[in-house]
Amino acid sequence: MSEYPTIEACVGNTPLVRLQRIPGETSNTILGKLEGNNPAGSVKDRPALSMIVEAERRGEIQPGDTLIEATSGNTGIALAMAAAIRGYRLILIMPAHMSSERKQAMSAYGAELVEVTQAEGMEGARDLALQMQAEGEGRVLDQFGNPDNPLAHYRGTGPEIWRQTAGTVTHFIASMGTTGTIMGCSSYLKQQNPEIRIIGLQPVEGSSIPGIRRWPKAYMPGIFDDARVDRIMDISQQESEHYMRRMAREEGIFCGVSSGGAVAAALRLSAEVSDAVIVAIICDRGDRYLSTGVFATP
């Protein structure tokens, strides 16, 4: 039966599709990389599997061990899937206000959930994960400082985009959470063509967009290198949700809130350039947000 792939082999190689209606009349091509097509439903499937497989390869962990991670959602679901595939106990620490779909998905894969308050947020979750590791309760994979996170995108996402656009990509846009996607893709794409512009997204002050952050300096992910990002755009929660709903209704692409922000940024960029090939990461699916009511708003 070895000729058949396992679920692990289905991570990556996601579609890259052209937006047809939202861009309007333009000489630019706006493309969305549909990361919701990964098995556990988000771009985080790539680094989750990479962090476990590479740690195994180095002999740092072995099946049966306990892994710990702070997560706002998608990484947790992806790690829960990867832990289930490869035989690990997983403890996930997350802010209590994350959507019920995310929590239920993590539990479905067998992960154990520990919640911190909304006020403590991801910073508090990260602190608790390190405290639990110090107390011998398991090993923190540390998506924020683990080079195997961007490595997944250097090996996978970046080369896929280069191949799928036949090397014509001119601009790459990604929301910034752990910053693994933008770091890995930037490294690969800039090696192929240094002229490719890399645009990162962060929420405006006061906006809450699941999965992306405006990090305090003390908590800036260790994998982040600002030299790899040509431009940072501020995106509001309102415009992210607006374009998320438009993506479903006008493009038939059911995506999450940060993906709406990436589309908003792509349109803003499209108004400034011509004859460009703009690739935006559509990082997850919209069904992960139904209980929040964001799709019910006009």
UniProtKB/TrEMBL annotation:
Residues 9-284 form the Tryptophan synthase beta chain-like PALP domain. SUPFAM superfamilies: Tryptophan synthase beta subunit-like PLP-dependent enzymes. PROSITE patterns: CYS_SYNTHASE (PS00901). The modification N6-(pyridoxal phosphate)lysine is found at K44. Its cofactor is pyridoxal 5'-phosphate. Pathway: Amino-acid biosynthesis; L-cysteine biosynthesis; L-cysteine from L-serine: step 2/2. Pfam families: PALP. Its EC number is 2.5.1.47. Pyridoxal 5'-phosphate binds at N74, G177, T178, T179, G180, T181, S258. The keyword Amino-acid biosynthesis applies. Keywords: Amino-acid biosynthesis, Cysteine biosynthesis, Pyridoxal phosphate, Transferase. InterPro entries: Cys_synth (IPR005856), Cys_Synth/Cystath_Beta-Synth (IPR050214), CysM (IPR005858), P-phosphate_BS (IPR001216), TrpB-like_PALP (IPR001926), TrpB-like_PALP_sf (IPR036052). It comes from the Bacteria. One of its GO terms (molecular function) is cysteine synthase activity. CDD domains: CBS_like. One of its GO terms (biological process) is cysteine biosynthetic process from serine. It catalyses: O-acetyl-L-serine + hydrogen sulfide = L-cysteine + acetate. Belongs to the cysteine synthase/cystathionine beta-synthase family. This is Cysteine synthase. It comes from Kineobactrum sediminis. The lineage of its organism: Bacteria, Pseudomonadati, Pseudomonadota, Gammaproteobacteria, Cellvibrionales.
